[in-house]
Amino acid sequence: MPQSRPRPATGRPTVPSVGRLGLVDSTARANLDQLGWVTEAHVALLWSLSRAADADAALHAMIRLSESLGPDYAELDAALLTDTGLRGRLFGLLGASLAFGDHLAASPQSWRLLAGRVSLPGRDELRAAFTAAARENAGPTAQLTLRKIYRDHLMVLAALDLAPTVEDEPVLEFPTVGAHLADLADAALDAALTIAVTKVCGADTPAPRLAVIAMGKCGARELNYVSDVDIIFVAENADSVTTRVAGELMRFASDTFFETDAALRPEGKAGQLVRTLESHVAYYQRWAKTWEFQALLKARPAVGDAELGAAYIEALMPMVWKARDREDFVPDVQAMRRRVEELVPADVRDRELKLGTGGLRDVEFAVQLLQLVHGRTDESLQVASTVDALAALGAGGYVGRDDAANLTASYEFLRLLEHRLQLQRLKRTHLLPPPDDDEAMRWLARAAHVRPDGTHDALGVLRSELRRNSVRVSRLHAKLFYQPLLESVGAALDFRTGMSTEAAERQLAALGYRAPGSALTHLGALANASGRRGQVQTVLLPTLLDWLSDTPDPDAGLLNYRKVSEALDEQRWYLATLRDESAVAKRLMRVLGTSAYVPDLLIRAPEVLQAYGDGPMGPKLLDTDPDSVAKSLVAAAARHKDPERAIAAARSLRRRELARIASADLLGMLTVRQVCHALTSIWVAVLQSALDAVIRANTDGDPPAKVAVIGMGRLGGRELGYGSDADVMFVCEPNEGVEDMVAVRWTTTVAEQVRALLGTPSADPPLEVDANLRPEGRNGPLVRTLASYEAYYKQWAEAWEVQALLRAHRVAGDMDLGERFLLMVDAFRFPPEGISAKTVQEIRRIKARVDAERLPRGADPNTHTKLGRGGLADIEWTVQLLQLRYAHEYPGLHNTSTLECLDIIEEVGLVGGEDVDKLRTAWLTATASRNALVLVKGKPTDQLPGPGRFLNAVAVAAGWPDDDGGAFLDNYLRVTRRAKVVVREVFGA
Questions:
Q1: Where is the PII-uridylyltransferase/Glutamine-synthetase adenylyltransferase domain (predicted)?
Q2: How far apart are the C-alpha atoms of 559 and 530, rounded to whole Å?
Q3: Domains of the chain: which residue ranges?
Q4: HEC string of 80-109?
Q5: Within 13 Å, how many C-alpha atoms sit on residue 564's CB side?
Q6: How would residue 338 be classed by pLDDT, with cut points 50, 70 and 90?
Q7: pTM here?
Q8: I want to staple 445 with a disulfide (CB 3.0 to 4.6 A). Which of 138, 458, 621, 945 is the partner?
Q9: Could you give phi then psi for residue 275, rounded to 5 degrees?
């Protein structure tokens, strides 16, 4: 774009070509001819036209305006030749706003408002003009007259806002624009009130005492060009006349000026439109939610009875500043944050100026939260405007001064773009043009007076500024809450004085920390770490703490983070990874703020943290195949002759794999089936490693017997959880020339050493080997030969022992021997003709006894994941009874997995598909919940807790979409209740 008019050699100006003027429309030359702008006298005018955001649009609007003016166009043309201010304002307006082009075409004489020295009228002047017009035009013409007055005033403001810089005419600052728009809205509301009172009350009925309270951006005097105006009505008497006046005011204002919205009133749209002051006070004292107090931050008496409006503010504002003491303040704030994020469709999130990441709402929400937290003790924060509040927060030390200035600049830049987008068609929008629409983005850049910077054109500069400001807002959004906290504990790093300890604890409490004093101690320890570590932590912590605040237990998360950081103090890659890979840091915070199980594993297997990032094929946590890990574990243990060293090597790989599985599980990367398979795989590998190591240690030459380990229960079903023991049986077969007793004695020694070796106390999750499902239980021999097992099952096996065999599967040791064991027990667990009615009755009797006796004292039968109503035991017993009864007919039921058997049961039609789905859903829900209990608590437990932070964490760990423990528990109860109905029908049939 030219910076000055080109001159020919003669010194006389020449008429520039349409191309040089930025005109691309094919009608441009004809339009210039029609306007008579083809003489040397019009050169300066044409260069002013070229500076419009869309010169073609401005030229088309001028054609329409000239046609509307008719003979009077000559006066406008003459004024444009001499009045540079008029040129800048008119062309700036028409090039950026199609809507005001339409307005001038309909009201052509309004151009005069842009001529000469133009200034904005004051608040009182505006109100007087609107009120006088309302009184003089109370009849049928009122709407048209007042709409034109409103649009004229809006046009003048927009023209001054859009005009290029003119000498002696300063650029309008954002606060000036927002405040004038609010003043204009007040004047319009005052006129609407005058019209409403005249229409409803007439000359005979006294006007009611009614105050209109402005809310939202209008209340804060930072209104948009196009915005709903939020209002609340308070009256001396909330009678029918007053309500009719309020309703008429809203109707007239909405039809004439802008949409008015009273949805912020008590009870929202379902509540009374008008309330007395006493009714308002009673509602806010008893029923109001946190968001309603947050909304009141911007309440301002706008029009109507000034005394009543002032009384409203005086009565309610003290409640606003006490809102942070409400019991539900923290969960309400967290819910509001989530709700804002969920409002934006994913496909337009990057284009949303208001609700997108790094958008306007991020700034406003953060500022309002800090006001609510600290405003009770610091009256300087009791202001309505976002910009004023940021300044006050910076001055009070609650936000760094530089941060406040940077955030203010970004906020005003984003609001400027919002204003330009709305002015184009006077439509309410917060959506940027699509990123590939260069023309629309170029128009926006010019309308916002974005200039080339020597390296990029205006379009490139705009895109760069958008990215920079979005990133800055996102970064400062976290820093806003936490940097002053770090400064309050960071004297060792030579920070300036931050907020007081009391203010810091107050802010941490509002962000979800239940022990803010301890949290400050942890922050101090991290930020004041020696050398570069403390400096890096200070950079990282604002963002990390922001992510932690969204976890179920920020206090535990911060403590865990401190433990991990101190344990990895010498690992140079640790902080560098968190700094350079945000995905790693964010995932780590989610894990640390949810689980007591994983942090200790990460401390002892820190290399897993490096897998928290993303690789070419997705999350690195999923790069590992559980079966490959199992083979590696067995191979690593086999390198050591000493059993203890072999098991130490196995434990190391197990620890790493547990950390990987649990992390991926908590981050929602694995299904319940995948978790169970991976946990089973690692348990089997540990068993194999221990067995191999002990056999090597107890054998001089060839071992006297073959040994097989038979997995039972969930191990045999390949459905282990985090807290599961390994239920096993040991079977041996003498090698040639060895007596049975010698083989059994030797194998018993091996089995006992395996159990002892694995059961040795360790910092890792325990490795308990349980052999109580063997024949005769605890009283029976630990090891039997294959023939001994067969003899026992033929003569002595009880119903429960046969049932237990349904999940028997070879897992370790001699695979051939294990396979022959399974073939042998098939005759007992899958009898050719099924089981007798007597056996069915016996199994039902045992189940009833289990239900009555095995549930722990004090346990809630509705929420015990294993033995409770519709829990794991109910479903597994039901499946096993169907296997015993029908496996001889359906070979697919020769399967140790509960889930896979359910698939077969549905396939062959033993139970209806809908009922099978209820059983399957309940099993998956109960298993996920049981696993989550271990992940959250750090040790096995089967009982879901009552409402509270622990339940919220279990919900997150179990894959519930948010930390609403109540909703999670309701779902669990519903799912298991439905499953129990099916269990009663099938198991009891």
A1: 335-481, 847-986
A2: 19
A3: 28-172, 173-320, 328-511, 516-620, 638-829, 837-987
A4: HHHCHHHHHHHHHHHHHCHHHHHHHHHCHH
A5: 29
A6: low
A7: 0.79
A8: 458
A9: -130, 155
